Amino acid sequence: MHSSILELIGNTPLVKSQHLNPNPNVDLYFKMEGHNPGGSVKDRAAYNILKSALDRGDINQQTKLIEPTSGNTGIALAMIAGLFKLNIELVMPENSTKERVQTMRAFGAKVTLTPADGGIIASRDYAEAKRDNEGYIMLNQFANDDNWKAHYKTTGPEIWRDTKGKVTHFVATMGTTGTIMGTSTYLKEQNNNIQIVGVQPADGASIPGIRKWPIEYLPKIYNPKKIDQIIEVNETQAKNMTQQLALQEAVFAGMSSGGSVYAAIELCKTLKSGLVVAIICDRGDRYLSSDLFD
């Protein structure tokens, strides 16, 4: 029994790959972040960002909050802000799947859609303008240390604990970079030989939830020294792997998870031994109105 839905954030399971892993000398595990109550890894960051800001007195129930999001962070913020009785406006591109928009509104958030051709960068520009001119406070997941610290407190320790310290490689797609920064920081403190592998879209590829940022928009929490290797993935590779995850592993996830697993499998092919953990960022049900599973 739990006193709040917030107690269900974190402690997500690790599930061993049964069919997709090409190397019998390597164990590949999926970190199932879709098991968070809001359906994604972003529950962790959203909770830590809002709870820490409330505890410090940076925000209260009269504060006008605003945040740009590609979807999952917005859902998590909407869910948690509703429980804390906070007012929040979420800004996202108008080509975001309707499941995401409807979920945020169901939790009580105001949702503003910016032009699709501007992508998340246009959403960031809109939110920053309201912050600068209309008295809003932007949570700024891209520069907020409470983002990566959520994973330092929870994701990293869970992986270390559940693998009994045997993890050798951690693979994660990079958007705000909070997941990989916080998890890397913790795992490297336990064993500096653990390899941290980031996943980015190849040039010209569009994969929801992950980005290759222009220099001027690079998240301020990003520290390249905490990553040992970057693997680039194109749309076809990510989409096909997302479909194969559902077909062969019964793991129903979004396209960024397909990118994560594609990179992890390519990594496994190069290893003589090891235990690889790959992030499964969210659930596939919030992509059903897209062509991801066509």
Automatic annotation (TrEMBL):
Q: Which cofactor does it need?
A: pyridoxal 5'-phosphate
Q: Where is the Tryptophan synthase beta chain-like PALP domain?
A: 6-282
Q: Which residues bind pyridoxal 5'-phosphate?
A: 72, 175-179, 256
Q: Cross-referenced PROSITE patterns, in alphabetical order?
A: CYS_SYNTHASE
Instruction: Give GO MF terms, alphabetically.
Output: cysteine synthase activity
EC supergroup of this enzyme: transferase
Superkingdom is: Bacteria
Catalysis performed (reactions): O-acetyl-L-serine + hydrogen sulfide = L-cysteine + acetate
Q: What is this protein called?
A: cysteine synthase
What are the top taxonomic ranks of the organism? Bacteria, Pseudomonadati, Bacteroidota, Flavobacteriia, Flavobacteriales
